[in-house]
Write a structure and sequence with these properties.
Length: 115
C-alpha cells in the first residue's frame, strides 16, 4: 500500500484491496480567477434620458386634456367650447410646467421609481 491509502491488509474484508480514485469528488475551483473585470460587475447609476422625461411630461399633460375633453363631451358641451377649454388647459399646463423644469431646478423630482 502506498501512502496509507486503503486497507492495511485485504484479509477478511471480502475485497481484493485494490484502491480506485473517486471520480465524482469535485475539488473546489480557484476563486481568485475571474474572466470578467470586477469594476464591470458594479451597477452604475445612469442619468435619465431628457427626451424621455420630456415625452412623459407632455404625455401627462395630454392625459389631463383628454380627461377634460371626455368630461365635456359627456356633458354634451358644444364642440367649439370643448376646443377652447382644452386649448386653454393645455396652454396653462405647458406654461406652468416650463417654469422650473427647463432650467433643471427640479432635478430628481418627478422621476419614476425605476430611474
Amino acid at each position: 500500500m502506498s501512502s496509507n491509502v486503503g486497507l492495511t491488509t485485504p484479509r477478511g474484508s471480502g475485497t481484493s484491496g485494490y484502491v480506485q480514485r473517486n471520480l465524482s469528488n469535485l475539488r473546489p475551483r480557484d476563486t481568485s480567477f475571474s474572466p470578467y473585470p470586477t469594476d464591470s460587475l458594479k451597477h452604475r447609476q445612469r442619468q435619465p434620458n431628457a427626451e424621455i422625461l420630456e415625452h412623459d411630461r407632455l404625455r401627462q399633460i395630454e392625459v389631463q386634456v383628454f380627461e377634460l375633453r371626455d368630461k365635456l363631451e359627456d356633458e354634451e358641451v358644444a364642440e367649439e367650447e370643448i376646443e377652447a377649454q382644452t386649448e386653454a388647459l393645455r396652454r396653462k399646463l405647458l406654461s406652468s410646467d416650463d417654469g422650473g423644469q427647463a432650467k433643471g431646478e427640479g432635478k430628481g423630482k418627478g422621476l419614476k421609481a425605476h430611474q
